[in-house]
C-alpha cells in the first residue's frame, strides 16, 4: 500500500499545539514510509470561518519545518485541496446515497427540532434526532417539497448490529449501531458537514492512513458505515492519544490561548511558542515525546533521527500531558548548537521589538559566550541591555569593593584598568583577557583575579547578570568602556 496521509485543519483560528502534534505524527509517518503528506483545508463551517486563518496555519506549519507534498498552495493531482472548492463533488455523492437508499431528505425546521429536544428532555429520553423524516411516504415527501422547505440530507445509519473500528494504536473498538443517530451529511445551504466531506475527500485523495486525535473516535463508526454504503475501501485508522494540560488535569485541546496551570505558563497556539522565543526544532522534539518514545532513554533528538524509528504500534494510547517542564531545557540545548551568526539572527527580532538598535558586530561578539545562558531567545534582552542603555551607574565606591579587594585595592584596580583600556593596542579579546586577569591578580589580597573581574563586570555593564567581562568590554568598544570606568573612578 502506498502511504498517503493528510492533515486537514479548519481555518477557524490559529494552529493549536495539539493540532501541530497531529500534523507532526502524520508527517513523520509519511516520511518514514516514503509516502505523501497532504495538507487539506476543511473550510465548510462558514459560520466559524476566520479570515486570514488559513494563511496563519500554513505559516505555522512551515515554521515548524513540516512541508507537504500536496496542498492548496503547491497543488497536486487530487486537488483542489480546499473543501469549499469541491462542493459539487459532495452534492453528487449525497445524491448518490439518496438514490441508493443510504440517505434521505429531512425537512424538519429548527423549531421542530427544538420542540423534539424539549419533549425528549421532559420524558427523560436520550437526546437526538428521532428519524421522523426517514419514514415519510412518497406522498408526505411530495407535500414537504411543495411547502417550499429546503431540506438537509441525513445518512441512514444501520439500526441493528455493530461497527468495529480497527485501530492500529488501540486495537479493535466495537460500537453498537443503535447508539449512532442519522447525522446530517448535506446542510440546507448545500455545503457538506464534516462527515460527508471528510469521507469523500479521503477516498478521492486516496488517503491510506488516518492519523488523528482520539477525540474523533466517536465519528469513526459513522465514517466506516459511509465507506461501506459507498462501496469504498476504508483507510487504516490510528487515533493518537489525548493531550492533557501539563498538570494532567483537563484536555489541552479546549484551550484557546496561553494560561496558567499551577504556576506554569502554558502556551497553546503555535504562534505563541514562536513569540516566546522557542525554536521550531525544540518544539517538534517536544511534541514527538508526547505519546511516543525515541528509545535509548533519549529525550533530545532531531526529526531526521526520529523518522526511521516511528511505528504507529509504538504510540501509547493513554492520555499524555505535555512536558512543558522540559521544553525550556530542550530549547536551551538547541540554542547552544546554533552558530553565532544563526543565534544573532534569531535574537535580533526580539531586540528590535524591545526598541534596541542592534550593532551586528557587537552582538556577534557576545553571542557565543551568552548562548549557554539562554533558555529562550528573549532572555538575551536583559543580558544585552548594557549595550544599548546608558543607564546612570547605581553604585557607591563601597559597593564596588570586596573582602579580597578593599577600598584602596579597588581604587588602584580601576585606575590601572582605565589606563590599560586607554593604551592597549590592539583592543581585542586576547589582550583584554590577559590584561584584566593580570590587574586582578596584582590588586587582590589573595592574588586571585576573581574578585576584581566580578566587580569590574558589574561596574562596566551595570548588571548583575550579563555576558562575561572580556566579551562585554569588547562589545562596548574602547571609548564606551573607558567612559564607564571613569564614572567608577569618580566614585573613589
Task: Name the features.
single chain, mainly alpha, 492 residues, 19 helices, two-stranded parallel ribbon
Task: Offer a quick outline of the entry.
This protein is mainly alpha-helical and 492 residues long.
Structure, described:
- The chain is mainly alpha-helical.
- 44% of the residues lie in helices and 10% in strands.
- The protein contains 19 helices and 13 strands.
- The protein has a three-stranded antiparallel β-sheet with strand order 3-4-7. A two-stranded parallel sheet has the order 1-2. It has a two-stranded antiparallel ribbon with strand order 5-6.
- Strand 1, helix 1 and strand 2 form a beta-alpha-beta unit.
- Helix 12 crosses helix 13.
- The longest helix is centred in the C-terminal third of the chain and has 17 residues.
- The radius of gyration is 32 Å and the shape is elongated.
- The N and C termini lie far apart (81 Å).
- The mean pLDDT is 93.
Strand order in the sheet with the most strands: 3-4-7
User: By helix and strand content, what is the structural category?
Assistant: mainly alpha
Report the uncertain regions: none
Q: What is the count of helical runs? A: 19
Strand proportion, as a percent range, falls in 5-15%
Gross geometry: elongated
Largest sheet: 3 strands, antiparallel
Number of E-state strands: 13
- CA(first)-CA(last) distance: 81 Å
Mean pLDDT: 93
Query: Which percent range fits the helix content?
Result: 40-55%
- From the alpha carbons, calculate the radius of gyration and give it in angstroms: 32 Å
Amino acid at each position: 500500500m502506498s502511504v498517503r496521509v493528510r492533515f486537514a485543519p479548519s481555518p477557524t483560528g490559529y494552529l493549536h499545539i495539539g493540532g501541530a502534534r497531529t500534523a507532526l505524527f502524520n508527517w513523520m509517518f509519511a516520511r518514514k514510509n516514503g509516502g505523501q503528506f497532504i495538507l487539506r483545508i476543511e473550510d465548510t463551517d462558514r459560520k466559524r470561518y476566520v479570515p486570514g486563518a488559513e494563511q496563519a496555519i500554513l505559516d505555522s506549519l512551515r515554521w515548524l519545518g513540516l512541508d507537504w507534498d500536496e496542498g492548496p498552495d503547491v497543488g497536486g493531482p487530487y486537488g483542489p485541496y480546499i473543501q469549499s472548492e469541491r462542493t459539487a463533488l459532495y452534492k453528487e455523492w449525497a445524491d448518490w446515497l439518496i438514490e441508493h437508499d443510504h440517505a434521505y431528505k429531512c425537512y424538519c425546521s429548527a423549531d421542530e427540532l427544538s420542540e423534539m429536544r424539549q419533549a425528549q428532555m421532559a420524558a427523560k429520553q436520550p437526546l437526538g434526532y428521532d428519524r421522523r423524516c426517514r419514514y415519510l411516504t412518497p406522498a408526505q415527501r411530495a407535500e414537504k417539497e411543495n411547502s417550499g422547505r429546503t431540506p438537509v440530507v441525513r445518512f441512514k445509519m444501520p439500526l441493528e448490529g455493530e461497527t468495529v473500528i480497527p485501530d492500529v494504536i488501540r486495537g479493535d473498538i466495537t460500537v453498537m449501531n443503535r447508539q449512532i443517530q442519522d447525522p446530517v451529511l448535506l446542510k440546507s445551504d448545500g455545503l457538506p458537514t464534516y462527515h460527508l466531506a471528510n469521507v469523500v475527500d479521503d477516498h478521492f485523495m486516496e488517503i491510506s492512513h488516518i492519523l488523528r486525535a482520539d477525540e474523533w473516535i466517536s465519528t469513526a463508526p459513522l465514517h466506516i458505515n459511509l465507506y461501506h454504503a459507498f462501496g469504498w475501501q476504508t483507510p487504516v485508522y490510528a487515533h493518537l492519544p489525548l493531550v492533557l494540560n501539563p498538570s494532567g488535569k483537563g484536555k489541552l485541546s479546549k484551550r484557546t490561548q496561553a494560561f496558567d496551570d499551577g504556576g506554569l505558563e502554558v502556551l497553546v497556539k503555535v504562534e505563541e511558542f514562536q513569540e516566546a522565543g522557542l525554536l521550531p526544532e525544540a518544539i517538534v522534539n517536544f511534541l514527538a515525546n508526547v505519546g511516543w518514545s525515541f528509545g535509548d532513554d533519549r529525550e533530545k533528538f532531531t526529526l531526521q533521527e526520529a523518522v526511521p524509528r516511528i511505528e504507529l504500534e509504538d504510540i501509547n494510547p493513554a492520555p499524555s500531558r505535555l512536558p512543558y517542564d522540559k521544553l525550556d531545557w530542550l530549547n536551551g540545548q538547541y540554542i547552544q548548537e546554533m552558530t553565532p551568526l544563526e543565534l544573532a539572527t534569531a535574537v535580533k527580532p526580539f531586540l528590535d521589538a524591545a526598541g534596541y538598535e542592534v550593532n551586528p558586530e557587537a552582538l556577534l561578539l557576545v553571542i557565543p559566550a551568552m548562548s549557554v545562558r539562554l533558555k529562550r531567545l528573549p532572555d538575551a534582552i536583559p543580558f544585552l541591555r548594557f549595550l544599548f542603555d546608558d543607564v546612570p551607574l547605581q553604585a557607591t565606591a563601597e559597593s564596588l569593593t570586596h573582602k579580597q579587594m578593599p577600598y584602596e585595592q579597588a581604587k588602584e584596580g580601576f585606575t590601572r584598568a582605565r589606563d590599560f583600556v586607554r593604551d592597549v593596542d590592539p583592543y581585542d579579546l586576547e589582550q583584554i583577557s590577559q590584561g584584566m586577569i593580570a590587574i586582578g591578580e596584582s590588586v587582590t589580597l589573595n592574588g586571585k583575579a576573581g574578585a576584581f573581574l566580578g566587580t569590574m563586570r558589574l561596574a562596566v555593564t551595570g548588571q548583575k547578570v550579563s555576558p562575561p567581562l572580556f566579551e562585554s568590554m569588547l562589545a562596548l568598544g574602547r571609548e564606551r568602556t573607558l567612559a564607564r570606568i571613569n564614572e567608577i573612578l569618580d566614585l573613589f
